[in-house]
Design a protein that fits this description.
The complex is a heterodimer of chains A (about 250) and B (about 375). Chain A has helices at about 20-45, 60-85, 100-115, 130-155, 170-175, 180-210, 215-220, 225-230; strands at about 10-15, 220-225. Chain A is mostly helical and about 250 residues long. The chains are: A mainly alpha (about 250), B alpha/beta (about 375).
């Protein structure tokens, strides 16, 4: 490919998203979709006209059940991701999400200038999440936490099975009862919807303007980064020692 | 009625007999109470023995900012002994609504109970206490309700906050709460407080609490919010006889439709059963005749804190804070989503304009590679 052509870039394959991260991502996506769909259904069920006896149909009962099932998967998946933030590779590390240095904010400012204000200038060269994305994910983790606590708080009193949901019995009291708790849970759902829309858009955006395989990276885990990024040391410094990763 | 002066306080059984109840009635009452309290049948003997041998609990019942619906509910509870005997005994000491005495005589009766049974009596409070303007919004006998509460609570063994007013302020504490109506647990410190919320609460709960204290010498188990577990650990939704329709997805869509006649679930017309903790579906009201859902009206959520401000009576959704009374989380969410869509479209257009060179280069590079591979 690279045979002296002016713009021909030599690309380096970087293993960015490890398999557990990818599984987490898609499991998360799936459960969020199920939870949003069943959640809205429970909030405002369809008007089903049926001549059958109530004992012969369980539309809403099943919807409720699926929500609880998905909620368990969502919660434990989330807990796993937190764990992986300590043992996974550097792109999965918790420091990608929580600012620990001035560089983090500097990069965020750069992303803001380049990708949101669309100013011309030096393109940022993050291989994994850029700082802005990482910081937004930090807020999504908080939203995950809010949704798990409020959701299991609502579930606690109706669960008759094992001990785990009962750990959340204190939640309704904190919010002043089930009704306000339910309102918080319902409103937070909209954060997930809007996040998803922006998230999917930005994945396409980055793939489009960077050409590094952003979309497919969550499939195989690879991103393809121009060799000169590493040669010239253009990569974002809060991702140390990128060379040995490949 | 005779004043409890020289002779020792009669036991419950003695009182029952004096009132003309048979032993069968007495046992029926004990069984009923045991069942409400969730006791095992083997504990019934304990209840009977306690009611036979122990002297009745002295009770002072105070009324502040309230409508007396709690008392009304109480005197209509399912077993006559609950109201007839327990309440009569209570009223002997002090309760504004039902006592025979008035004026100084009444004040005297309360003072007597407070000194004679110091540390033993149960204080029932019906109504909230206004704290604005030094409490002038509710005064009895020249004293503010705050003062009366403080005096009465000082020597009480336990305090029962009776009804939603006493537990969370109810309607008078709804926004903007002009009198600063305050629930009892925020004013009385250092005493065990049992909350019995509801507007009104179920009379049997009060009787149950008293029977429990008499039988076991201690307060019943309370949940995290201070309500007796036996009555408030389940949602109205969980014990509702219309629950199968909820699970089946069969709902009343409007109050005059066919589904309403069939008695389907009232969830979509705003029933708050799924977020309300109470025993309505089991004990019901007025001698167990009915409860709101059985009469075709959704649950109000009257035993929940702030239920006047929490949401709308006939809708599931509640107003989203800060966006006006008409906007729900869904209207705000949809607007935000639309705004996001517009912003992203604008961003996509700007990307193609401002990053034209960058995208062109990528395209060129890709096309060149494609050409090279062809040859």
């Amino acid at each position: 490919m690279a045979n002296g052509k002016t713009n021909g870039h030599k690309l380096r394959r970087v293993y960015v998203w490890e398999q557990p991260v990818r599984i987490y991502h898609w499991l998360n996506a799936l459960t969020i979709i199920v939870l949003i769909a069943t959640g809205f259904y429970i909030a405002s069920p369809l008007a089903i006209q049926s001549s059958k006896e109530a004992s012969q149909q369980v539309y809403n009962g099943l919807g409720t059940h699926h929500t609880f099932l998905a909620a368990y998967i969502f919660l434990f998946n989330f807990l796993f991701r937190i764990y992986w933030g300590f043992v996974g590779n550097k792109y999965a590390n918790w420091k990608q999400f929580i600012p620990t240095s001035g560089r983090f904010f500097k990069e965020m400012w750069q992303v803001f200038k380049m990708d949101i204000l669309m100013l011309r200038g030096k393109e940022h060269m993050s291989v994994g999440h850029n700082a802005m994305a990482g910081f937004i994910y930090f807020f999504t983790f908080i939203a995950f936490l809010v949704q798990c606590i409020t959701g299991f708080g609502l579930y606690a009193s109706m669960s008759t099975s094992w001990w785990f949901p009962k750990l959340f019995k204190w939640v309704p009291g904190m919010f002043g009862g089930d009704a306000p708790l339910r309102s918080v849970h319902h409103a937070t759902t909209w954060f997930f919807i809007i996040f998803t829309v922006i998230h999917v858009y930005l994945v396409f955006y980055h793939d489009y303007v960077e050409g590094r395989g952003e979309i497919s990276s969550m499939g195989g885990g690879w991103k393809f980064v121009e060799e000169e990024v590493f040669e010239k040391g253009l990569e974002v410094p809060n991702e140390p020692t990128p060379a040995k990763e490949a | 009625m005779d004043k409890p002066t020289v002779q020792k306080t009669p036991t419950y059984l003695e009182e029952f007999k004096r009132k003309g109840y048979s032993r069968k009635d007495f046992l029926r009452f004990c069984t009923l109470m045991g069942a409400y309290l969730g006791l095992e049948s083997t504990a019934l003997g304990q209840v009977v023995k306690a009611m036979e041998t122990k002297p009745r609990l002295p009770v002072i019942w105070l009324h502040f900012q309230e409508c007396t619906c709690c008392s009304e509910s109480f005197i209509r509870s399912s077993h006559p002994i609950v109201a007839d005997v327990l309440l009569d005994q209570i009223s002997l000491d002090y309760t504004e609504t039902l006592m025979a005495a008035s004026g100084h005589q009444a004040e005297e009766a309360m003072k007597n109970t407070m000194t004679k049974y110091k540390g033993e009596y149960i204080l029932c409070v019906e109504g909230s206490v206004p704290t604005a303007a030094d409490g002038v919004y509710c005064m009895i006998g020249g004293k503010t309700s705050m003062q009366i509460l403080e005096e009465a609570a000082a020597g009480a063994k336990a305090v029962i906050a009776w009804g939603s007013c006493a537990c969370n302020g109810c309607v008078q504490a709804a926004k903007p709460n002009p009198t600063s109506a305050t629930p009892i647990h925020k004013l009385v410190k250092g005493k065990p407080i049992i909350k019995v919320p509801g507007c009104p609460p179920i009379g049997e709960v009060m009787a149950g609490v008293i029977v429990h204290v008499v039988t076991f010498g201690r307060l019943p188990d309370l949940d995290a919010l201070g309500r007796p577990k036996a009555f408030y650990s389940k949602r109205v939704h969980d014990t509702c006889y219309r629950r199968p329709y909820y699970d089946a997805g069969l709902y009343v869509e409007s109050f005059d439709d066919e589904n309403a006649k069939k008695g389907y679930c009232l969830y979509k017309v705003g029933c708050k059963g799924p977020s309300t903790y109470n025993a309505c579906g089991v004990t019901k009201w007025n001698n167990g005749v009915s409860f709101p859902i059985q009469s075709g009206h959704g649950c109000f959520g009257c035993s929940e804190e702030n239920y006047w401000d929490n949401g709308r009576i006939y809708e599931r959704a509640s107003a989203f804070p800060g966006f006006g009374i008409e906007s729900t989380a869904d209207t705000v969410g949809k607007t935000a989503l639309a705004a996001t869509g517009v912003a992203l479209a604008a961003h996509a257009i700007m990307t193609n304009v401002r990053k034209k060179k960058l995208i062109k280069n990528l395209e060129k590079e890709g096309k060149e590679s494609e050409q090279e591979l062809k040859s």
